[in-house]
Amino acid sequence: MNLEMIRSHPVATAVDATVLANALEALAECSQACTTCADACLAEDMVSELRACIGLNLACADVCAATARVLTRQVGRDTAVVTAQVAACVAACSACGSECERHADMHEHCRVCAESCRRCEQACTDLLTALG
Amino acid sequence: MNLEMIRSHPVATAVDATVLANALEALAECSQACTTCADACLAEDMVSELRACIGLNLACADVCAATARVLTRQVGRDTAVVTAQVAACVAACSACGSECERHADMHEHCRVCAESCRRCEQACTDLLTALG
Amino acid sequence: MNLEMIRSHPVATAVDATVLANALEALAECSQACTTCADACLAEDMVSELRACIGLNLACADVCAATARVLTRQVGRDTAVVTAQVAACVAACSACGSECERHADMHEHCRVCAESCRRCEQACTDLLTALG
Amino acid sequence: MNLEMIRSHPVATAVDATVLANALEALAECSQACTTCADACLAEDMVSELRACIGLNLACADVCAATARVLTRQVGRDTAVVTAQVAACVAACSACGSECERHADMHEHCRVCAESCRRCEQACTDLLTALG
Fold it and tell me: Which of A79, A95, B12, D111 is least buried, going by the fewest C-beta atoms within 10 A?
């Protein structure tokens, strides 16, 4: 659906529409996975050992959500803003992915969330390359 | 992916997991569609006639995003909060869907966005029924 | 500053500008207090007893932030949407305030956050009355 | 209130508490000002000349809101994530401030919003310096 919406937009995107649509999908998935993982970690018996994971999950969810919105808007698009926000998102996905990977063997939600973070990190890295 | 995450959560959901996963997917799609539609309307030549559509798109995007987060969290879940927030989302999707439908013949982004709003309105209505 | 911004807006607000500005200030304060309280609870030794508080804090922060945005927008304003979202915010502030009050004697952040929730609940209730 | 909440938090902040509280206040104010300014611009007769301003206002509002949340969380705090997100916020406030300044003589909401963006840009720059 993202691609359909992007193509009906009067303004051309700065990067290839499929690269942008791919990033938007990864961002939405990662934001949702991180929100769920934070809540699932909070419900675990060993919550006191999952504090850093919860904190990073919540940060990554917020950064992904804001990045998706910044990337969606073509009107008033500012390259410096877009590039800096996507770079912040790469940092958030990388940090959260690494933390979730540490618990991936023990918690299925951390395993799935880590994969989601890594996909999003890659999609944002590809986008930065495409932005030049 | 939502279903996989929900099933790995230590706390059982208040409603059937597939009903919840369906609502979360519809909410993410609608929030993204509304953000894109607002920006596409803003770029149209006839922007002055699309003001109400832009305003409702932005409101619906924010309400859907908040509703998805409230629904995702099982820890500290409060039925009154969940029910009231989902009801607010039904109102937002209904208002935005109706406004987008008025421009659906002229703007493809409004047509796609209206469909997304209607799907989300239905998913949230189903969820309210399931919540009882 | 909110009042200055509201008065420079070309569209008249649905309610008295000072009632609206008061609500917007309470919503921003409550959203920030809840985000801080969630993180402070997460850092406490007794985190396992504060899970519900963290979950409600996070929900209340999201609902307050979305409500502030809905209330800020006068273009495309829809009474049903505004009323339902403010009602959801009253429910969130009430639930979070009650939970924080249970820990107010033990945790200063819960005490301050509870007060912030109650102020926001009242400001939103006043707004609902003003909306009629 | 921010300072009171920060001081009741079990974890010490990475930077001086007053620098952090100052940044959080500037971020909340700027996010609110940008949301109002976007809506006020949308209501102006000359909306077609204010498109870029609306787009940048919406982006800046989202980036400021996410940055405030990232800065608020001390649990799982990651310097690379915080620094990159604050840098993205400096870029957003700078771009939005410059655009609003172009309309400051004509629209009071743009004048007030520009000042809010500049204050937030400075507060985030000070924070980056404090972070080292």
Answer: B12
Query: Residue C40 and residue D8: Cβ atoms within 8 Å?
Result: yes
Q: How far is C125 from chain D (nearest CA, A)?
A: 21
Query: Model pTM?
Result: 0.98
Taking CA A40 as the corner, what is the angle to CA A39 and CA A46, rounded to the nearest 5 degrees? 110
Q: From the list A42, A55, A58, which residue is nearest C51 (CB)?
A: A42
Please indicate, yes or no, if residue B3 is contained in any of the structural domains.
no
Residues of A with CB below 8 A from B72's CB?
Answer: 32, 35-36, 39
Q: Looking at the complex, report in whole angstroms how far the Cα of residue C71 sits from the nearest Cα belonging to chain D.
A: 10
Residue D68 lies in a domain: yes
Closest CA to D24 of D79, D61, D71: D71
**CB count in 10 Å sphere of residue B12:** 9
pLDDT band at A75 (very low <50, low <70, confident <90, very high): very high
Residue A8 within a domain = no
Number of structural domains in chain D: 1
pLDDT of residue B2: 84
**CATH number for the domain that contains residue B57:** 1.20.1270.360
Cα separations (Å) of D127 from A58, D18, D31, D71, D72?
Answer: 21, 10, 17, 10, 13
Q: Which residues of D touch C23 (CB under 8 A)?
A: none
Report the phi/psi class of residue A74: left, alpha or beta, with left for phi > 0 and alpha for psi in -120 to 50: alpha
The boundaries of the domain holding residue A61 are 14-131
Structure confidence by residue, pLDDT tens digits, C34-78: 999 999 999 999 999 999 999 999 999 999 999 999 999 999 999
Instruction: Give a yes or no: residue D9 inside a domain.
Output: no
